[in-house]
């Protein structure tokens, strides 16, 4: 359930539910309704979180009919359960540690944006993908091309505007 909550939050709030809906529209030709936006962004994470809280609250000793499992068996179950979750923070910490420049916040923001080569491989699909970009998507794309998070890029661009914007900042 922890991974389910993480997936819901990452898809809705880091990748962005609007970007996800644009991706679905690009693939299927139909934009999902706002019903799905609400379900992905609010209802699903809330439902999974509520289920997790109730499961923790109602947790009892593990038993099957009249047999109560020994403590060591319960611990083995917990170890297997935790083994599925542990790689997530370990891989995240490793990815953050590999970036050598910027504050911790900047490194995390950089990792939370799409890579420059993200998107469709076919040129005609890639053109449609770029056409679906809004202003924020372009900022994130240009920031990724410079190896910056979008907030640092906006500061960089504001400082650079005093001396004139380079053609690299406006080119796809």
Automatic annotation (TrEMBL):
GO BP field: amino acid transport; sodium ion transmembrane transport
Transmembrane segments: 38-57, 77-97
Main location: membrane
Acyltransferase among keywords: no
Superkingdom field: Eukaryota
Record key words, sorted: Membrane, Transmembrane, Transmembrane helix, Transport
Cellular location(s): Membrane
GO cellular component: plasma membrane
Keyword field contains Transport: yes
UniProt topology in membrane: Multi-pass membrane protein
Designated name of the protein: Uncharacterized protein
Organism annotation: Elysia chlorotica
């Amino acid at each position: 359930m922890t991974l389910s909550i993480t997936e819901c939050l990452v898809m809705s709030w880091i990748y962005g539910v609007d970007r996800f809906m644009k991706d679905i529209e690009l693939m299927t030709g139909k934009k999902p309704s706002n019903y799905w936006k609400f379900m992905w962004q609010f209802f699903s994470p809330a439902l999974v979180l509520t289920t997790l809280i109730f499961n923790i609250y109602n947790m009892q000793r593990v038993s099957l009919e009249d047999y109560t499992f020994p403590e060591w068996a319960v611990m083995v179950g917990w170890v297997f359960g935790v083994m599925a979750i542990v790689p997530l923070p370990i891989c995240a910490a490793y990815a953050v540690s590999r970036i050598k420049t910027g504050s911790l916040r900047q490194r995390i923001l950089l990792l939370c944006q799409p890579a420059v080569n993200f998107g469709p491989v076919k040129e005609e699909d890639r053109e449609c993908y770029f056409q679906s970009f809004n202003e924020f998507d372009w900022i994130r794309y240009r920031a990724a091309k410079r190896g910056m998070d979008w907030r640092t890029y906006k500061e960089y661009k504001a400082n650079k505007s005093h001396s004139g914007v380079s053609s690299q900042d406006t080119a796809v």
